[in-house]
Amino acid sequence: MLPQEIIRKIRNKERLTAEEIKFFINGLCSGEVADVQAASFTMAVFLNGLSKEETLALTLSMRDSGARLAWPELADKPVVDKHSTGGVGDKVSLMLAPMLAACGAYVPMIAGRGLGHTGGTLDKLDSLTGYKTSVDIEKFKETVKKTGCAIIGQTADLAPADKKLYAIRDVCATVESIPLITSSILAKKLAAGLQYLVMDIKCGNGAFMENRERATALARSIVDVANGAGTKTSALLTDMDSVLGTTVGNALEVEEALSYLRGEKPDARLDKVTMALCTELLLNCGIAQSAEAAEKMLRQSIATGAAYERFMQMAAELGADMSIAEAFADKRRKAPYVEPVFAAETGYIAGIDTRKVGLGVIMLGGGRTRPEQNVNHTTGFTSFCQIGDKVDSQTPLCFIHTEDKDALPEVAALLKQAVSLSDTKPEQTPVILQKIV
Fold first, then answer.
1. Does 233 share its domain with 319?
2. Residue 373, domain extent
3. Position 58 in a domain
4. Is residue 395 over pLDDT 80?
5. Do the domain assignments include residue 437?
6. Looking at the domain assignment, is residue 236 inside a domain?
7. What is the CATH number of the domain that holds 338?
8. I need a labelling partner for 212 at 20 to 30 A (CA). Which of 42, 144, 218, 327 fits?
């Protein structure tokens, strides 16, 4: 086989065989397929797409390009995970993993860093002093076995073809291709040896999939391919037209997540998304027989402190300084400047350009403008307004946390632009938009 002939077939909208796709991915890993050929491959896929069968073959080839985890030592409980396509203020993974562990599941979660205007779970966990998001497979497995959950980054052994192909997609404008997104997400998840997966497909102005049609198409693709690969998978479309929770920024989101696990007045939308995703997994894996039973178990895991304790056990196993972790709100490093941002007039929040909110965190140093950049964990926003809230001269849109006082005026102006007001209170839109199985 020749790489250029495989590219030609996709260019001409001809079907590829599983053997051709495997040859191309193996060649990418060995160096026999050049980066320029891989770039041409991704552009041809971007323009012409892949069939469901081709997307499955691509996913399996990428999954098999490195190590594959198996969990025979965890046969007593189901092995489950969740993945989000990325949002602003999305700290759900931090609560979901220990809650499910407390309910009787194993959760080996391989998470990512911030991408574009969206935050990353690993960047958030880095704000826990000492927490190691980069560990070897043996430590990962040991932590899952001991505590029921572990959240780490992708190891070099898992789906190395994805790392190579993603780096190429990132610089040749082919990131948004649904077949390529599907294979990229699932190659890592399937290599982790999951039995059950639930996808949180974000939809709205703060998501990569801004409209319902694209979000639904991505959800359908991922569900079909994952189930075709033998991992029982469903997806929830969730609203990302406003910040999820009341905080945006790494340490600030960890603080909100820990507060949630302690049962301290959670934000309503954040609670609905977290409970819906957890419930979906408990139902799919058979731990719960009804949505009501699942939610009761989850609420009890919080009320008894079991979920919070699982998080702390995981953090300790992965190296966190527990003297800080256990009193995070008081002992974490904090930004020296905290300033409120007020709207120009009184009114109800009618809309939020959530992408601008995410960009505001990057402007404060809480996200990246170049791949190798270290992020500032203290910066971001707290008490962020929600659609339907009334704001006035006493009630701010949010509070800005920053280490650079000079950044305050520009970020404040951006946030004012991001929020639109109305004289009347708008109707609430549902946060759970659709389920796809």
1. yes
2. 333-422
3. no
4. yes
5. no
6. yes
7. 3.90.1170.30
8. 42
The vertex-45 CA angle with 44 and 46, nearest 5°, equals: 90
pLDDT band (50, 70, 90) for residue 324: very high
Token duo for residue 164: 């190579």
pLDDT at 371: 63
94 with 136, same domain? Answer: yes
Burial of 303 (C-beta count, 10 Å sphere; 0-12/13-18/19+):
exposed
- Condensed to tens digits (0 to 9), the pLDDT of residues 179-190 reads 999 999 999 999
Token look-up 């999820």 returns: 244
Do residues 229 and 87 both lie within one domain? yes
What DSSP string runs through 195-258? SEEEEEEEESTTSSS-SHHHHHHHHHHHHHHHHHTT-EEEEEEEE-SS-SSS-BSHHHHHHHHH
The average pLDDT across 43-57 equals 97
Secondary structure of the chain: what % helix, strand, coil (to 5)?
45, 15, 40
Taking the C-alpha atoms of residue 177 and residue 169, their distance in angstroms, rounded to an integer, is 9
Q: Tokens standing for 312? A: 């702390």
How many structural domains are present in the chain? 3
The CATH number given to whatever domain includes residue 137 is 3.40.1030.10
Q: Supply the residues annotated as catalytic.
A: 81-84, 121, 169, 184, 188-189
Q: Where are the beta strands (DSSP E) in 85-188?
A: 107-111, 149-153
Same domain, 12 and 39: yes
Considering the domain architecture, whether residues 319 and 338 belong to the same structural domain is answered as no
Amino acid 191 reads A
Which residues have C-beta within 8 Å of that of residue 129, sequence separation ≥ 6? 320, 321, 324, 325, 332
* Separation CA 165–CA 167 (nearest Å): 5
CATH number of the domain at 35, please.
Answer: 1.20.970.10
pLDDT of 366 = 87
177 vs 42: CA distance, rounded Å = 8
Residues 211, 266: one domain? yes
Segment 246-290, tens digit of pLDDT: 999 999 999 999 999 999 989 999 999 999 999 999 999 999 999
